[in-house]
Amino acid sequence: MLHSLSKINVFALALVLSTIVFTGCKDDDDSPIPFPDTKVYDLESVADPNIEGTATFVRVDARTTSVTIVLTGTPTGGVHPAHIHANTAAEGGPIVISLNSVDGTTGTSTTIIQEDDSGNPVTFEDLMEYDGHLNVHLSEDQLDVIVAQGDIGQNELTGKAKRYELEEAAVPGISGTVLFEERRNGEALATISLEGTPEGGVHPAHIHENSAEEGGGIVYTFNPVNGTTGMSMSNVAELDDGTPFGYKDVLKYDGHVNVHLSPEQLDVIVAQGDIGVNAD
């Protein structure tokens, strides 16, 4: 897949470079940058495990950015709307910049950006620092179905991560992990992955004070674990009381994670594990 994506990206970049030359000939006041800055973000599969790819941001000039989406696995004849949204993918957020739809036959789309949907100027530098994510949707009539997705700008992951085990508790057979991944802005993406959760279940999850053996109050609330998939993804930026709380804070925190049976049965813990200083 990487080989085919790289060939398409080279072709897309060549188109952008040719546009730069043409723009430079037309407007001497908007001189092109000889070696445009480029940033590639991964777009992970969501609703369809066969669809994934990249979004390549290229600085064309001081006011203009090209965004090229390249996906594999899209259906022939499909038309897939794409947008830049506010906030992280785990949080979700409104559409801020509408992109050209991805052609299902080729798996590609290219959009030239100079402003957001409200008419505010947007530069390459703005996008590199933006608190946002990019979604590719199934169709115009099914925007709630996301086929590929990726965090961009300050929400990009640095590659640093810490995984903690979640052992089975009151319900035999349910166990897994919670993975914290550092973002460039210092926040964290938390992914809970469990095996053995019942189909259709909704399992609240929290960070609690103290070790699991001691027990303690709730300080952070994750998005609930989906029993069908066994998954939950949350953005960790602050505790429930508003206290700043990012990736580095997780690593030194005196706490533990509980996953509960249901919103009505928080006293029944199905999986549990120490984090931070209690897991060292």
From TrEMBL:
InterPro entries: SOD-like_Cu/Zn_dom_sf. One of its GO terms (molecular function) is metal ion binding. GO terms for biological process: superoxide metabolic process. Keywords: Signal. Residues 1-23 form the signal peptide. Belongs to the Cu-Zn superoxide dismutase family. This is CHRD domain-containing protein. It comes from Pontibacter chinhatensis. The lineage of its organism: Bacteria, Pseudomonadati, Bacteroidota, Cytophagia, Cytophagales.
